[in-house]
Amino acid sequence: MWDVRAWRDVRLRNVAWLRPWEPTSPETPLFRTGLGPYVSMVGALRKEGRQGTALPWVVTYEGAFAGQLTVGGILWGAARSAQVGYWIDGALAGRGIIPTALAMAVDHCFLRVGLHRLEANIRPENLASRRVVEKLGFREEGIRRRQLHIDGAWRDHICYAITVEDCPQGVLADWRRSREAGLGDSQTRPA
User: Is the pLDDT of residue 186 over 50?
Assistant: First the structure.
């Protein structure tokens, strides 16, 4: 709840930036930036976190709120899988913030939490987001037809996935090495 003002300010500044990629509900307005949706989201994420079905994080950059990353839909038992979603303030895009945050989340999920597989489902047109997961070694697995309601319609998504076997030592160290070597736009591991 401490981030409510920062979240609201960033969301208001980024309506056009986020609208084409944000999940919507067929029954509600396309994009709401008031405090009500934030309070509802935080309540739902806290509940899912307590139940072990989500890991929600705020993304910060230089000490300020920059975006959000959530590992959700966690399935335990034989699956041990989850889905990742993220967004960043458009003014901060392209600085490696989200790939770094996602690399940290992957390592946490695989090396600490004990998950086996993570998926990121991304609209085909969202080239920047696709590059984020490709840089970290997620592999493309195919199209999910009309998977999510986005920006007022049911939209196709490309499924990307990574398993613990793909990165037994994690992905953050490889990502950092590639950034230091000036290879940030290259995949950090073979597909």
Answer: no
**Torsion angle, alpha carbons of 181, 121, 151, 90, to 10:** -10
| Single pTM value for the model | 0.86
Any idea where the domains of the chain sit in the sequence?
4-180
Q: What is the 3-state secondary structure (H, E, C) of 95-163?
A: CCHHHHHHHHHHHHHHHHHCCCEEEEEECCCCHHHHHHHHHCCCEEEEEEEEEEEECCEEEEEEEEEEE
pLDDT in tens, 67-125: 999 999 999 999 999 999 999 999 999 999 999 999 999 999 999 999 999 999 999 99
Q: Is 1 helix (H, G, I), strand (E, B) or coil?
A: coil
Class of domain 4-180 (CATH, top level): alpha beta
Taking the C-alpha atoms of residue 140 and residue 130, their distance in angstroms, rounded to an integer, is 9
